[in-house]
Design brief:
This is DUF1905 domain-containing protein. Helices cover about 20% and strands about 50% of the residues. It has two helices and seven strands.
């Protein structure tokens, strides 16, 4: 099973409520999109992610040609993550 690791600056995107995300680089987003053929739904890709010592299941959202990894509030608290922080995340497809 492929595991991808990347660094990202935590960004905010406001929908009905503010959310924090770790944007994947464009080249990695393209690679993940190709690998996720058949498991995407509404453009989202289900993954198991890890930031620091915290592993969590989520679905990445497509936005402006790349995927955004949602950083759940429980992960933000456990890893002391805030808007603008730099993180290293790893993801694998959830099949």
């Amino acid at each position: 099973m492929t595991v991808w690791t990347f660094g990202a600056e935590i960004v905010e995107w406001r929908g009905p409520a503010p959310f924090l995300f770790a944007p994947l680089p464009e080249d990695l987003s393209a690679e993940v999109k190709e690998a996720a053929r058949g498991i995407q739904y509404w453009g989202q890709v289900p993954v198991v992610a890890r930031i620091g010592g915290t592993e969590f299941a989520t679905a990445m959202w497509p936005r402006h040609g790349r995927f955004l990894l949602p950083v759940k509030v429980a992960v933000q608290r456990a890893e002391n993550i805030a808007l603008g922080d730099e993180v290293v995340a790893s993801i694998r497809l959830a099949r």
